[in-house]
């Protein structure tokens, strides 16, 4: 493929990600329906499907762009954008699906995404370790990023959890041998902490040159800690955790705007988009916070309703 | 854009170019010629530009003069090595001695901002022991300044320029974190790293004065690679786009295209101002103090040119040391070829460094130290390097085909101060009718042993890094220092630790010429640190009424 066509492919991937994001946004009317039917766990499943899709959207745009920058030098570099696309489709489908039953194809896709993410982490670790200096800051900053494939793993895990939850009874559903709300709270809390860790590494690389760069390394970790606390202690209403998770959701979308602005601060700004999209802050990255916040809020809702 | 900056001054009519905005201007204070300003500074490079800023910020009335043009990087810096020669000081000079040096691209600058406009951005601190190299290491001369004080000023300069450096630096005492993170390494830097690891010595990403993240209106580095031809994106943090805009904001006046030809001294033996050539005529600016900051050739030249009945041997020259102890840094290299494409010219030229032989004292048969860095020569410089080797015609063409695969390591080596290496005045005159400088230089045996050690070690390291067909470039020099050294004894130095001349209390020197020794690192950071220290000392002395 010529450079130009690759470039358009990259744009198409980004647009797909944006479209997917728009599609998975929660619709209030449906939520009311679900609540009326007391199908809280199905509502949670659907939220996790959507969250997984949004996260996969980030992964699709990010991996397509970054692997394009790496000239797809290894054919396996085509895999993550492909798998992420399937993960988005599964999430869109699951997000609209009210059946109280695991969907085999979706479930398989999610497992595929998780395994791809795991393998990708291996590839990226290898890429870091083979460079001079090995495990040092410069390689962590600029070699294949550790956190990126983990996002695909997380997207798969969120989706798989959603599918397994659908097979559980409406009353006191369980996952991994514990109350489902606790399991999902732990999963999304840990995922959120990991996402914040990656943001810290890359914002540290950017020397926190803008004050807003502190937001994703302070609000999401606080939300994560509160969510983990809610998951591990006895169920009760947790308004502070909910507020912090909503703020995390906001951080994700404001981050997108800040990153768009960040690209403009590079030489030539958006007029030189074909270079600055790659040199500037990653535009598709911040919405992964919104994805994790959606999952976290759904997990919290479920957890708050669990018997003491 | 307005006019030709090499013929029409830009710093006038109450405004100065705002180099961070296309076509932008900023208001600039102007001082009348017949009113004595507090400080007239000759030169706006790492020494003069920095000092002008810090003195203006302390509330002094400052005018800084520069013979060069006030460029707008965003509009006037081309990706063209030949065109960018406009940044170099190419006025006539005579070079002689056993090892005559070549002046031009890597050791001189003629522009507002001085040679920092085209410096390679390498921003290193001296090894602490070098400030006492005579008493601790047994060679050269002691500095009259304590290293801990210098390290405080290094920190100030690193913050001012937002140096992009490694999270931890492998050599020397612990230092605070660099303000910005180190840049991504290019393939040439990786070769240095691999070689160093094979040789069992430490290496590091180089602390560089170019942004790895945005800073205000300055863009982060785009890895264009034309750093030593002038940075067209303002990623390079230099006197031109950091210190001088700050100076102008603080009330300093910068006069571009103003060649100072004489420092005037009265009957009482005090400076009264400077004669300068601007807009086709000689003019006089009155000043209470004069600071000479013209770098290691022009500073002694101006002091010698200003000789008069009262000071027949030149100003500040009772020790006879003005122009003496002129030091270069050895800049030899080893080059080779890699099988894979390297494209060494991508990004800043010196992304990786090892200072191992600056800090190790065992296994040396010489005094002093050296650092070596990865390299990224641009095509014209690279062609000249090849022709210097004797290649021409078919052979040169063939060698140039390997340009994308060539890789090299280049040293910055310490040379010892020698009185026979000196700046004197020649009989020939320049375009202003002033006698030109004669630059006399010879290596001593110690310098040669250091160079031999470096070439040998770098050759092994390049081989260990995977290069083949390795050859040596044996005759390059860089960075000029000494020639008006500071010290604690008026008999053996020209200025004291504050840069104040022993002979004339209102004459100061602030640039690389005050270095008693050069060390094995690029000098710009140290020059700026000294300028910041000089400004602080002037502030203290003024408060005490001792100016």
TrEMBL record, chain B:
Read off the InterPro entries from this record.
Answer: FAD/NAD-bd_sf, GMC_OxRdtase_N, GMC_OxRtase_C
Endoplasmic reticulum among the record's keywords?
Answer: no
Alphabetically sorted, this entry's keywords are: FAD, Flavoprotein, Oxidoreductase
- Quote the Pfam families the UniProt record gives: GMC_oxred_C (PF05199), GMC_oxred_N (PF00732)
Domain Glucose-methanol-choline oxidoreductase C-terminal, which positions? 417-531
Report domain Glucose-methanol-choline oxidoreductase N-terminal positions: 109-328
Q: Which GO terms describe its molecular function?
A: flavin adenine dinucleotide binding; oxidoreductase activity, acting on CH-OH group of donors
Keyword Flavoprotein carried by entry: yes
For this chain, the family text in UniProt reads: Belongs to the GMC oxidoreductase family.
Name it: GMC family oxidoreductase
Give the species this sequence originates from: Dyella monticola
What is the organism lineage in this UniProt record?
Bacteria, Pseudomonadati, Pseudomonadota, Gammaproteobacteria, Lysobacterales
